[in-house]
Specification:
It is a single chain. By secondary structure, this protein is mainly beta. The protein has a single domain, classed as Sandwich (Immunoglobulin-like). The chain is 11% helix and 37% strand. It contains two helices and eleven strands. The strands form three sheets. A five-stranded mixed β-sheet has the order 4-11-9-6-7. A four-stranded mixed β-sheet has the order 8-5-3-10, with no helix packed on it.
């Protein structure tokens, strides 16, 4: 639905002239629950980060309370992804319900990474920096071309009329701190 507003002089009741004296107003029908999807479908994170914040967007409507399940999973290694990130070694798995209240259009979901500050499942701490230093000295200071990857998936929306968009999966690649910073600067 559209309507127009025109500005008039209050004393003379004459229409004012200029580019900013009339405008078109569009009322969007927000009476739909909307679709859910990730804001970004590919991210690069530094191994020494504590967490990666993943943004889930609700678009094409914000009516009512809706939810979906969010879960992490490793990727199957292939030519473009020779390394698979491992639960509890590279990241802490997540499988939880995310809820949006009426009018909410965005949620930030933290995915915690395992590094020297985050204990592993068995209570030991993993020190990526020391491990990477040892690997680099043995291999002549070369950086790995690909970092391990995992993905976050949206599924099981509620109620039934809520749809998951084509942006239903976000891939996270873990890089050494310097490599992740280089990749982030390229985007």
């Amino acid at each position: 639905m559209d309507f127009y507003i025109e500005l008039y002089d209050t004393k003379s009741s004459q229409k004012l002239y200029g580019d900013d004296t009339d405008c078109r107003i569009t009322i969007l029908d927000e009476d739909f629950p909307g679709k859910l999807g990730f804001e970004v479908t590919e991210l690069t994170a530094a191994r020494n980060q504590d967490k990666v914040d993943i943004i889930i967007k609700r678009f094409e409507g914000t009516d009512g309370k809706i939810s979906c399940m969010v879960r992490t999973e490793g990727l199957i290694p292939d030519k473009t992804n020779p390394q698979n990130a491992i639960e509890f070694e590279d990241y802490l798995p997540k499988h939880e319900k995310i809820e949006f209240n009426a009018g909410e259009s965005e949620k930030i979901v933290p995915i915690y990474l395992v590094n020297e500050r985050v204990p592993q499942a068995d209570g030991n701490k993993k020190d990526f920096e020391l491990e990477n230093d040892a690997n680099n000295s043995e291999e002549g200071e070369t950086e790995e071309e690909f970092g391990p990857k995992f993905k976050i998936v949206l599924e099981k929306p509620e109620p039934e009329q809520v749809k998951i968009s084509k942006k239903n999966c976000c891939t996270v690649e873990l890089k050494n701190a310097a490599k992740a910073e280089d990749t982030a600067n390229e985007h």
